[in-house]
């Protein structure tokens, strides 16, 4: 059995979920559902990053004296939101859990034994939003370019991880395995950065009151990124991950630091890091700290989960930034999902009900059907390749293409017109349209899994990938009419 282990970044627990965090999680969900359909042994991990300074600050601000209690209350909200969005994650990791803390200490001792930890002093500008030291050249006005907040001048004694020791090995790995970082533009950014040299990374902070204790010096706690990245190792039997998903803001932490950490501790490397773009509003990244967040649960109550998922990939090209627009979302639902998919489904299934007792009629295919079957097979192969490469926008476009072809087929054959004069031909096109519906439902399923289940039930099919392009529905197979989506006024 092929294994497929996919992760999202773990989200900072001081914020509530917004459409941006839901986006990364949706990518993981789409891929997980597809791999499960193919029968792969799939594990989808998401969770919360709780040991950040930001979390302790937010707790204080809200009057919590017990930071853990605050974090627990946030975790409840995240878990609830992900449930409401029907994500199919197999695990939800919290970095305040006992098992995670043990994993961090275990990982650290491997790096320590390797001789890759030393003590030093660092002076620099720190952004608590990013949990990262910034270089002066990247913040000429003293403000974080991402958060627009003033940077803190910090001089402190820290423990360092000898990341620079692994620069050549990291570079070599990336260059020999181009699929390690996708898309190519992101890979190039990382390679260029590495070519300029690489500094060691401070991995502890003194005098923090929140965070995982540093095993070799009780005055210190782990710098949150060193702790957070280790979450990915938690489903031990699934390591190495097939895919780490991440936004472009955190590509260096993953592509460089995490790779170096794994090399030092002697773990296998993940197969792929896929870096996606941002959801923006008027060109600005959506985030809680910038005050332009959109609640994905509220949005789903208005438009339905599947409509939003469809919009996310159809309207915004994965890998690039995209401006979120409710108008465009509504248009995609009404002009595409309803017009091109839902109406076709209803038309065919209800016509079958009316004229063939809801049963797929006996049929002998002609040239048109045989030719179209070949096209379906080609489209499915294209779709499979696109899903493998995480080209989700392209894969969804392929599914839409199939649906458009099916519409055209039915419009050309006009079974509702010829049923009175040529029942046989009407039977052929109805039989064939039903087979096409099955393929369409399967291709759409990772993107629209909630309606996908409804559609599969009405069609009486299993949501399995096998023979997806073949006309497997036998004569006499029962289909129930259903209207999957409604127009949004
Ligand atoms: N806690 C760190 C990640 C640690 S992983 C070991 C973190 N958390 S975060 O909550 O700030 O952001 C996590 C991820 O959310 C981003 O990398 C990105 O994948 C996603 N997004 C947050 N805002 C986003 C948009 N506006 N658009 C798309 N994705 C965004 O960084």
Instruction: Find the CATH topology of the largest domain.
Output: Rossmann fold
CATH top-level class of the largest domain: Alpha Beta
Q: What's the alpha carbon Rg, rounded to whole Å?
A: 26 Å
CATH superfamily of the largest domain: HUPs
Level of helix content?
40-55%
Report the bound ligands by name, code or SMILES. Answer: 5'-O-[(L-methionyl)-sulphamoyl]adenosine
Low-confidence stretches: none
Look at the helices and sheets and give the structural class. Answer: alpha/beta
For the sheet with most strands, the description reads: 7 strands, parallel
- Judging by the overall fold, what is the CATH architecture of the largest domain? 3-Layer(aba) Sandwich
In one word, what is the shape?
Answer: elongated
Portion in strands? 5-15%
Number of domains: 2
- Average of per-residue pLDDT values: 95
| Terminal-residue CA separation | 46 Å
DSSP helix count? 16
- Say how many strands there are: 16
